Amino acid sequence: MYNQTQNTGRLAASDEILDNNTHEWQSKDCVFYYDSRRAGGGKTYDIVSAACQRAARGQKCLIVQPTTRLIDETFQEVSFRFPLITVHKFHSDDGNSVNVSSRVMAYLNNADLGGVVLFVSHRTLINLPYFHRRKDWAVFLDECPNAFETFDDRLPVNHTIITDHVQLVDFASAYSRVEVTNHHALSMTARNQSQDSILAQVQDLAKILVSPNYDSYVNIEKFETLKRKSSNDGRLSIFSILSPNLLRGFDRVTISAARFEDTFAYHHWSKSGIKLKKSRELHSDTTSLIHPYNPSIAIYYGYEVRYSKYLRDRLGGDNTPIIAAATKRLGNDRFVRVENNDVKLTSPLGKLAGDNLIPGISHGLNCYKDIHHAVTIIAANQTPEASRFLREYFDFDDDKQFTAFTNHSVYQAICRTSIRQNDQAHNKIWIVASKDTADWLSEIFPGSRVESLGLVQPVRKQVGRKRTHKTDNERKNASKNRSRVELSLASGFAQNIDASYFQGIDYLENGDESAIKDISHFVARFRASYFRDYFSTDPYVICKTESQFITYLRDHSKNVYTSKNEIPCVSGAMFDVNKSTDTNRGNINVEFVRGIWIDIEKGTMTHGDFSRSFPLLHFVAYNTFSHTKDRPRFRIYIPTSRVMTDYEYRLVYAEIIYVLESKGYRSQKLLDAACRKTLEGIYHGIDHLPHPCAVFALPCQAQDQSGSFFKEYKGDCRMALDVDSWLINRIAPDDDELIGSAFDNLDEDGDLTITPDQQAGIDASMNEWYRVGVLPGEGHDALFALYHSLYAMKLHPRAISERLSEAARSACSPKDRQRQADRLMTGLRRWHQSRHHHFL
Predict the structure, then answer these.
(1) Residue 658: is it exposed, middle or buried by C-beta count within 10 angstroms (0-12/13-18/19+)?
(2) H or E stretch at 549
(3) How much is the pLDDT for 500?
(4) Which one of 89, 344, 379, 534 is at 20 to 30 Å from 1 when CA atoms are compared?
């Protein structure tokens, strides 16, 4: 759960804030504008233009940049492009020995009467104790300031330099805010005029603690044990959050930062009452997050796991295997390099002739645009304690942290090279530490390819899943409920499968088999059958969770093939090769089906059109090998809530086509040359007759790679296709060609004969109902599970209806369960009537 920082929490307790210039109360509602276009997209140029245009109209503008070097470069740009504009700069390297904050405050108190552009650094703005008449100034932040600072050091004795002058306030269950009790003492430590070495260790922390722009927190237990001198490790850990109050009260605030939405500042400030809106003053194009297509990029990664200092040190410190691999790969070519401060000066890469070491904060460096290669081997992850704090207290999970703190640093460094101008004439080699970073970059740079350096991978430790529930009990209960329902649904199918059948199954991956405990688990985790190529008849089974399977498809979409016959294929069907002597993968071999696979070609419908037609469906769309922008050929995979019979698959497939055609889509296939939107009418391009046994080529790069895509439509409102709901509420008319053999064994005169095997299945299913379904809150899911178990046994509808009614009478809410049973039976009767007319 997200928790407001206490400083903003105090402000949020009222609808007003105190302006530190006029001491007048103002509304706390605030709007910040932002421009998040890609690096190299001209953000700084547009900031200068907007600020100088405002200054020309008599307004005061503050441009805040991350480095003194960038300030100097931009200052020169303003002087050249707008010679009539008054412009000033203040920073620590401008040749003036007087404290920067003092000089800035002195200027603000006597600022130019007319329009002006003033340059300061991020750190200077944060450290200013007071900003005179801020309401007269428009602020442009060039790049996003670091909104999270952490101090973590071993101070078993000298922690009193800090801990004696603060107290904990606003106690919570695990974390508490730190409040300064002796401002003078900490201010003296922050200045450290005597250059004391001990004070130097905590000098920056003291500056943060006395600053009104930060809210600082500690773990209550660890902080108190440290003060009581009973701490095991003697570490002082303090986490500091940059408050958006730093920017409140200005006339207008605009933040220009590449991929700003990924940052912790965006995450935190948007949840602190700040309204963040895209700036049209700087940039009106909302589609420039992704770089232009560029096939000259090869992204090499070292490790499948995420890189850390612990892993680096375990593998050899500043001479890890990835360093040797990078040295071999680059040869004598020039490259830019970013490594952690503790190893960058001793790294073997620094001895190469082509090395160009750049700082970790490299925003705005434009002097490396003639270099094509980059090595960014950094461990920018937070300490375990800090990471846990962000995850638990601010709902900023591990994936978001990795993107914000590691991937963004790599991205900024790489964008110092020739890719900044989208150079395509030279091959580019980028070497990064982790596969996750390589994959992230590949999505941002279309056309790039990801390759492994071929290193021996470290042994992975068991890691926990990303937390999605507030408490462990909630997580365990949700997991039990999901597993019970899914296994109950699967058990009906599993009862019709002989256990000996599984002895001949070949799994695609060893991990798939190890996750299977019994037949029901197999059915619940089955996702597809895999074939080495289109002509193969030997199926391999893929058993994964849905998210794992979609990740598998996404990873496969990056593969390049020279012929479509080389591409491996999958089918949603589970095949029993012993059912026929003529074929291994025909409809007669189908045991059950998972997911809906749709081939779309020779039509005008796009995957975006499909998405708008089914706004609640979670699905994946990807190009085929032959896909081009002018002749679209793509496939759609729709996850389903459970496995289906051949017959159910056909009904769901028909329902999809019916809905599309009810929206005006035509079914005819077009000539390849005519598959354009300019035609009169719209065509969906889907075959009418479904084939549950059909195989589909896995995702890959298209032959014309510029048209390749892999798009997952997901979100809070999008869910896997609910088979039960779709079948019960379907609107498509019955089609004799679609009716399978689900009830071919039933007597048309209504024979209710039950075989011994069916009776055994009924007894097991009813026992499960009485074990779970009669409990409060369990009836709805358990009745669905009972229905599917009975249906999978191919019982006569009347026999199914009788058992459902029996179950409903014993439920905690008999009327609700009977209405549910009636809805289920309405759908079943409708399916059955298309073939049998003399029952019930």
Answers:
(1) middle
(2) helix 546-556
(3) 54
(4) 379
DSSP annotation of 381: P
Q: What is the dihedral of CA 47, 264, 337, 349, to 10 degrees?
A: 170
**Alpha carbon distance 306, 327 (integer Å):** 21
pLDDT of residue 745: 39
Low-confidence ranges of the chain (pLDDT < 50): 1, 3-28, 463-466, 468, 476, 479-480, 482-492, 494-495, 515, 677-679, 736-750, 830-840
Tokens coding 716: 């809070």
Q: Could you give the CA distance from residue 72 to residue 90 in angstroms, rounded to a whole number?
A: 10
d(C-alpha 593, C-alpha 575), whole Å? 9
Contacting residues for 421 by C-beta, under 8 A, at least 6 apart? 40, 369
Token pair of 542 as six digits? 């893929």
Distance of CA 780 to the CA centre of its chain: 32
Q: List helix spans (H) across 394-466.
A: 398-401, 408-414, 435-444
How many other CB atoms sit within 10 Å of the CB of residue 44? 21
Q: Name 601's bridge partners.
A: 633
DSSP sequence for 145-185: ---EEEEEEE-TTTTHHHHTTEEEES--SSEEEEEES-HHH
| Contact call for residues 539 and 502 (beta carbons, < 8 A) | no
Label residue 602 left, alpha or beta by phi (over 0 means left) and psi (-120 to 50 means alpha).
left
Q: Which residues contact 696 (CB under 8 A, 6 or more apart)?
A: 569, 570, 571, 597, 599, 635
At 163, which amino acid appears? T
**Pairing of β 540-543 and β 335-339:** unpaired
The model's pLDDT over 704-742, given as tens digits with 9 standing for 90+, comes to 888 899 999 987 668 899 887 777 767 777 654 444 433
Six-digit token string for 523? 């059915």
What per-residue confidence (pLDDT) applies to 257?
Answer: 92
Angle at Cα 618 formed by Cα 612 and Cα 623, nearest 5°? 75
Q: Is 771 helix (H, G, I), strand (E, B) or coil?
A: helix
Q: Hey, what domains does the chain have and what are their CATH numbers?
A: 6-146+246-278 (3.40.50.300), 149-243 (no CATH), 297-379+399-452 (3.40.50), 473-738 (no CATH), 756-833 (no CATH)
* Non-local CB neighbours of 25 within 8 Å, separated by 6+ positions: 16, 17, 18, 19
Cβ proximity of 176 and 184 under 8 Å: no
Q: What share of the chain is helix, strand, coil (3-state, %, to 5)?
A: 40, 20, 40
Q: Which two tokens stand for residue 678?
A: 């300019």
How many whole angstroms from its chain centre is CA 698?
22
Three-point CA angle 577, 579, 580, nearest 5°: 85
Q: Which structure tokens are listed for 77?
A: 């740009």
Encoding tokens for residue 269? Answer: 């400030």
Q: Which residues, in sequence order, are CB contacts of 752 under 8 Å at separation 6+?
A: 796, 798, 799
Can you tell me the distance from the alpha carbon of 363 to that of 108, in angstroms, rounded to the nearest whole number? 27
CA distance 18 to 528: 61
Please give the Cα distance from 174 to 220 (Å, whole number): 6
| DSSP calls for 180-201 | ES-HHHHHHHHH-TT--HHHHH
Which two three-digit tokens encode residue 402?
A: 């990795």
SS (H, E, C) 667-735: CCCCCHHHCCCCCCCEECCECCCCCCCCCEECCCCCCCHHHCCEEEECCCCCECECHHHHHHCCCCCCC
The string of pLDDT tens digits covering residues 94-135 is: 888 888 999 999 999 988 888 999 999 999 999 998 899 999
| pLDDT over 90, % of the chain | 39
Amino acid at 123: R
Distance CA 380, CA 434 (A): 12
Angle at CA of residue 542, ends 714 and 738, nearest 5°: 75
Q: What's residue 77's pLDDT?
A: 92
